[in-house]
Structure formats: structure tokens, C-alpha cells
């Protein structure tokens, strides 16, 4: 499932646990976590290449904690067809810098959420 900031998953997580699911797959939203182009001045100063929206990150951590509290493993997808607007504006995957931006994003997500993740998917349905 994809995690909206307002919410839903606690009910989904409970239902998944009730039917005996052992693994819960969830994706993070690159746009939500890194809404501004790294290096731009859209943040309070220069925007970092790493996670910019700490509130969204805290929300993801809370959801992963809820999944694990139900004794399910977490399968996390790093890219589920949702990309930042700045990514599209700079040429998307055809821009050679994109690989580096995604690499930094992926490493930062792994550093921040890794202790709660059992399985990783780089791209949904590559």
C-alpha cells in the first residue's frame, strides 16, 4: 500500500494481521520526502539532497512500527511511480544527474528506515 500522510494504514495493518499476513508491503513517496530540488534555495537555506520533510519521515517510521507491532515483516518499495516535480522538470530519468539523486535518496531512506525493514524493492514493477 502507499502511505498517505492523513492516513489510513492502521486499519489495513490490523486487517492484514488478522488474516495471517506475514509480510506487509509499503512504499515511500520520493516527492513527499524530498519535495524540493537538492541545491535549490526553496528550503530554509540550500535544500539538502537528503530527506527534507522530517515530519513525513516520522510518519513512515510510525507506520513501520505499527506493522512490526503486529508481528509482520516489512517489505519497502523505494520507487512506486511517484517522483518529485523537480525530478520531472529536470528531465526525469533521462537526466544523467537523476541516478545520483535517486542513489542519495535511497541511501538516506535505508539509513533512516533500514532497522525496521526486512525486504527491499528498488522499483515497483520494473
Q: Number of DSSP strands?
A: 3
Taken as a percent bin, the fraction of beta residues is: 5-15%
- The span between the termini is 17 Å
> Main beta sheet, described?
3 strands, parallel
Q: Which term fits the overall shape?
A: elongated
Specify Rg, calculated over alpha carbons: 15 Å
Low-confidence stretches: 1-5
Mean pLDDT: 91
Helix content estimate: 40-55%
Task: Output the structural class.
Answer: alpha/beta
Side by side, the strands of the main sheet go: 1-2-3
Sketch the topology as an H/E string, one letter per element: HEHHEHHE
Count of alpha/pi helices: 5
Descriptive overview:
By secondary structure, the protein is α/β, with parallel strands linked by helices. The protein is built from five helices and three strands. The chain has a three-stranded parallel beta sheet with strand order 1-2-3. The longest helix has 17 residues.
In short:
Helix content is 41%, strand content 13%. The protein is built from five helices and three strands.
Which structural traits does this protein have?
three-stranded parallel beta sheet, 126 residues, alpha/beta, single chain
Amino acid at each position: 500500500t502507499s502511505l498517505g500522510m492523513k492516513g489510513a494504514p492502521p486499519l489495513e495493518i490490523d486487517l492484514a494481521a488478522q488474516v495471517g499476513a506475514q509480510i506487509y508491503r509499503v512504499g515511500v513517496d520520493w516527492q513527499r520526502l524530498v519535495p524540493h530540488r537538492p541545491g535549490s534555495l526553496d528550503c530554509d537555506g540550500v535544500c539538502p539532497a537528503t530527506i527534507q520533510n522530517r515530519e513525513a519521515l516520522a510518519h513512515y517510521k510510525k507506520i513501520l512500527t505499527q506493522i512490526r507491532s503486529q508481528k509482520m515483516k516489512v517489505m519497502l518499495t523505494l520507487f512506486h511511480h511517484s517522483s518529485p516535480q523537480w525530478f520531472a522538470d529536470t528531465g526525469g530519468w533521462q537526466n544523467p544527474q537523476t541516478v545520483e539523486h535517486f542513489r542519495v535518496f535511497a541511501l538516506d531512506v535505508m539509513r533512516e528506515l533500514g532497522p525496521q525493514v526486512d525486504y527491499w524493492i528498488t522499483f515497483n514493477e520494473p
